[in-house]
Design a protein that fits this description.
The complex is a heterodimer of chains A (about 475) and B (about 400). Chain A is of the alpha/beta class. In chain A, helix 3 runs antiparallel to helix 4 and helix 11 packs across helix 12. The two termini of chain A are about 30 Å apart. Chain B has about 400 residues and is of the alpha/beta class. In chain B, about 25% of the residues lie in helices and about 40% in strands. Classes of the chains: A alpha/beta (about 475), B alpha/beta (about 400).
């Protein structure tokens, strides 16, 4: 355990909230016009087809209305795309990421040091990508995986080096830009992110991680992650996010597309700790083929408002989906998150487990959809949502939707909401714990199903974040 | 909306309906306001998910089915001692103050387009008043519609510490060819410490579109319970709810439905916890057969000041046919942490093991299935206080089961 001590001792809040001086090699104008997009595309030296895709996405974005009529949704009226800087290329020499932390400018290296990324890489990861503002600045993978044909590279570079694959899979069959307003925005101005390709029968034993950091005020980050897991391969991908807090809003609108081929297994874990001025509006989706397994593990702690519903399309017979999500909303936060699963084939199975905690006026909402298509015989789904509330200023909503077109199914949904049990606290106090300690212990137990899915480093981190959220608010 | 229908909906039509019931001016004014607002009001909320609208009300030309001055029905009322069960003209003649104090206070006449239509055009209904401390026997009201359309308005006022069970049944008679429209509004005032069970059994013919909205407001320590049986109609959009305003008030909303052929049921149960230490229990069970489709929405809202709330919801749907579809959305909206709330929903088919077990005991497959479906409804049937009503619902279910192809 000693190697994790630095995580326990560190002042977690300071670790996320520090700021570096804002400097860039290239920065786009504020706002979103065709001209901006041409400039970004040219700065990235992109092929013509990618520019055309961006421009088509822009048209979708301009046509589509803002989502405003979802019951209980976060207020997005502040999100004015013309007020954000969509593209900031950090001031580094090597495009596509250096492969040694020492080669980074001091301020950027210092940022990731403080976030503990190089340390984690040594101990627990197969590969790391680190994005600063709009582009990946560090990208490395242990050599053994490279030898097996595993690709883990920055998305911008993949457009140039693997155009055939990217052209086929990038925002075509999984998340088309027409999917929603923010997917369209993303399609127009995406930058950075990861491209992961796991060849057939390859099992990547230790997780890969990408870390996304916004440093500048008023910027938008739009990284794109594309994961292709060929038949019978296995990978665990971890995404971490953070930003310092500014008075002006920041926007994060990432997009994740995962292709889980026959018999493959992908776990996608996210620990999101955006600053409390960030709007986090993402689209994440996986397509699971025959006997494939997709697992989403998500911890949403940060942001001012989050709207995120990772989706799995169970396309092949016998495909399986697991969602484990935890949301923690404190003062001024509205965390609207959940899961979507489409059962489009027989013998498919999904399990959704959602936990949420709201306090000090925070609002959490589980919003989920399970759709079972006609012909998806013997589909099985189980949804379980549990919410803890700390006070009567906070709000906890649960809004599941079930659409069942097939009769030979097993569909179950359960949800509970309540306060921390007085008896539980009393019991722990009788064992010598203070009330605060008792509450923290109960919360740690409440979220354990999530933490046990993560590597120990991240579990510790998540617990620490939650302790931090709880501090000063108890008693 | 078709212009032809709108031309049937005029001020003078509404004035005529109002004068037939001998109404005071204030009620006529309320109707006229509702009529006036009609075009600006939205349809009742229906659930929408990406690419799918659970019930499509806009596609129906409700107003085209309306022939306001030719509403036809037969009404039977059983009136126990100590209770006033009155037609609108009677109620307005003898209890105008009571009606005026409560009419439109629980259901806003302008809540949505179909409520406004109903308020503007109701031609019949019942006003029930249970005075303080009266412990009444069952009131029964049977409405049999025999015209193209019918708008029925029910107002129930129970005073302090009274108790009553009310049974309402809707059916239709006569084959008019083409579609029909039934619309019913029920406002229920449960006074302090009063106890009310309101049961409704809807068995309209399968050419009839049905819109109903039933809502109760429960005062301190009051109990307002609803039983909803939905068997008939071509399409039903119904909402049943209770506002638990008084401390210690309680509600149960018990629902049973059986859809067949291409029937469409959109059923909605709601509870608002506003007082302290209030309790709600929402239980709905339904079966869908053939190409029928069910949509269920259950919403439990706990207010900021609703300390000590207990709120439970269960919904189970049994699918008997490959072609049937079931949508469900149970919702929790919790604004006070001093709450114990849960909901659950399930969709499935008859348990194969149960079926096999019965068959090994020598029961034929068909009979075994019917037994299991009848058994599925038992938890709901057990909640019904009045035997006559329970038997009617049981028989309605049984008739449907035995006429299966």
């Amino acid at each position: 355990m000693s190697s994790q001590d630095h995580l326990k001792d560190a002042d977690t809040e300071a670790r996320f909230d520090f700021k570096q001086e804002q400097r860039a090699a290239f920065q786009s104008e504020k706002g979103l016009t065709e001209e901006t997009i041409r400039v970004i595309s040219a700065d990235k030296d992109e092929p013509e087809w990618m520019l055309q895709r961006r421009l088509r996405a822009l048209q979708h974005f301009q046509r589509m209305p803002m989502p405003t009529d979802w019951p209980g949704q976060p207020d997005l009226s502040e999100v004015d795309v013309n007020e954000i800087i969509p593209y900031i290329r950090p001031d580094i020499d090597v495009r596509g990421g250096v492969d040694s932390w020492e080669d980074l400018p001091d301020d950027i290296k210092d940022t990731f040091d403080k976030l503990g990324i190089p340390e984690a890489e040594k101990n627990a990861l197969s590969g790391v990508g680190a994005q600063y503002e709009s582009e990946i600045v560090y990208q490395n993978m242990k050599k053994q995986w490279e030898d097996k044909g595993v690709i883990f590279m920055d998305m911008d570079r993949a457009v140039r080096e693997h155009p055939d694959i990217v052209e086929e899979y990038f925002m075509t069959k999984c998340v088309p830009p027409s999917d929603n307003k923010f997917a369209a925005l993303h399609g127009a101005i995406w930058s950075g992110g990861s491209f992961v390709y796991i060849p057939e029968d390859t099992v990547v034993e230790m997780p890969m991680q990408a870390y996304f950091r916004m440093n500048s005020e008023g910027m938008g980050q739009f990284e794109h992650t594309l994961i292709i897991a060929e038949p019978n391969s296995e990978v665990h991908y971890i995404e971490g996010c953070s930003a310092p807090k500014y008075s002006h809003f920041n926007l994060h609108s990432g997009c994740v597309e995962v292709f889980v081929k026959e018999g493959a297994h992908v776990q996608y874990s996210t620990v999101q700790n955006w600053s409390r001025n960030t709007y986090n509006l993402n689209t994440k989706r996986a397509i699971a083929e025959k006997n494939a397994t997709m697992e989403w593990v998500s911890g949403s702690m940060g942001s001012k408002a989050t709207m995120l519903y990772p989706a799995t399309i169970l396309k092949g017979r016998g495909a399986t989906d697991t969602h484990i999500t935890i949301a923690f909303a404190g003062k001024g936060q509205n965390i609207d998150t959940g899961a979507k699963v489409y059962h489009n084939a027989p013998n498919t199975k999904s399990t959704i487990e959602s936990k949420s905690i709201s306090k000090d006026g925070g609002r959490t909402n589980y919003r989920g959809l399970v759709h079972i298509s006609d012909g998806a015989t013997n589909a099985k789904t189980s949804v379980e949502c549990d919410a803890l509330m700390f006070d009567n200023e906070s709000t906890s909503d649960t809004m599941p939707y079930m659409e069942i077109e097939e009769s030979q199914v097993d569909v179950a949904h359960e949800a509970t909401v309540g306060r921390i049990g007085d008896e539980d606290i009393f019991y722990l106090q009788s064992r010598g714990l203070s009330e605060d300690e008792a509450k923290q212990l109960i919360v740690a137990g409440f979220i354990e199903p999530i933490t046990e899915e993560l590597p120990i480093e991240y579990a510790v981190e998540l617990n620490r974040l939650i302790e931090l959220e709880m501090e000063g608010s108890l008693g | 909306m078709s212009t032809q229908a709108s031309s049937a909906l005029t001020d003078s039509v509404v004035r005529e309906l109002s004068s037939r019931l001998d109404e005071p001016d204030w009620l006529l004014e309320t109707r006229l306001e509702a009529l006036e607002a009609l075009d600006d009001l939205p349809f009742p909320d229906v659930i929408q998910t990406p690419g799918r609208r659970w019930t499509n009300l806009e596609a129906l030309d409700f107003e085209a089915l309306v022939d306001p001055l030719a509403q036809g029905e037969a009404k039977e009322r059983d009136v126990p001692d100590g209770v006033s069960v009155l037609s609108w003209p009677e109620a307005l003649a003898d209890h105008e103050d009571l009606v005026r104090d409560h009419f439109g206070t629980i259901i806003d006449p302008l809540e949505n387009r179909l409520v406004a239509l109903s308020t503007a055009l109701f031609s019949t209904g019942t006003v029930i008043h249970v005075p303080a401390d009266v412990d009444a026997e069952a009131v029964t009201v049977r409405t049999t519609m025999d015209g193209r359309s019918l708008f029925n308005y029910t107002l129930v006022v129970t005073d302090e510490s009274s108790s009553v069970t009310i049974l309402e049944r809707q059916a239709s008679e006569g084959d008019l060819g083409g579609h029909r429209y039934y619309s019913g509004l029920v406002e229920l005032v449960a006074g302090e410490n009063a106890s009310v069970q309101y049961g409704a059994l809807q068995d309209l013919d399968e050419d009839t579109y049905n819109y109903t909205l039933k809502r109760a407001r429960a005062d301190t320590y009051a109990t307002a319970n609803w039983i909803e049986g939905n068997l008939g109609s071509r399409l039903t959009k119904t909402s049943v709810g209770t506002e638990l305003v008084g401390d210690g008030s309680e509600t149960k909303i018990i629902g049973a439905f059986f859809g067949r052929d291409d029937q469409h049921f959109d059923l909605d149960s709601r509870v608002w916890h506003e007082g302290e230490h209030t309790t709600a229990d929402l239980v709905t069970r339904g079966v869908i057969d053939d190409r029928a489709r069910s949509v269920y929405e259950g919403t439990q809202v706990v207010g900021r000041d609703a300390w000590g709330t207990s709120s439970y919801q269960r919904e189970n749907t049994l699918m008997l046919s490959e072609e049937a579809e079931a949508d469900a959305s149970p919702k929790l909206i919790i604004n006070n942490h001093d709450t114990e709330a849960s909901h659950s929903a399930s969709v499935g088919q008859i348990d194969r093991e149960d079926l096999l077990y019965l068959m090994t005991r020598g029961i034929g497959e068909r009979a075994a299935k019917n037994m299991l479906v009848e058994g599925f409804f038992v938890p709901v049937l057990d909640e019904i206080a009045v035997e006559e009503f329970r038997e009617d619902l049981r028989e309605g279910i049984s008739t449907r089961l035995h006429s299966r192809r």
